[in-house]
Write a structure and sequence with these properties.
Layout (H helix, E strand, L loop, with lengths): L2 E5 L2 E3 L5 E8 L7 E7 L6 E6 L5 E3 L7 E6 L4 E6 L8 E8 L3 E3 L3 E5 L2
Parallel strand pairs: 2-11
Antiparallel strand pairs: 1-3, 3-8, 4-5, 4-9, 5-6, 7-8, 9-10, 9-11
Amino acid sequence: QVYVVESGGGSVQPGGSLTLSCAVSGLDFTIHDARWWRQGPGKNRELVARVTATDNTNYADFVAGRFTISRDNAKNTVYLQMNNLQPEDTAVYLCNVYLTYNYWGQGTQVTVSS
């Protein structure tokens, strides 16, 4: 059984920071790529960042240097460090690991408001 569990969401003021975690079990995490997605209210799901099994990273343009994705293979965990959060970053953030199949977590809510 594969489990993907996100944590670390919450409410912050504009300009604040959060670090999301995604704990994965039930598969060989070291050979899987991982992605963070988000879905804001009334919006389509959009890709935020990706880290490959070989630790290459890619980001959506809207991240603009504010977010950092990383992985710790010893802990089977993917992180998303988010700085200078803005109201438009409000969304449910979802973690996805994939190789042959896609595995998804349930998401963690991030709310940015003053």
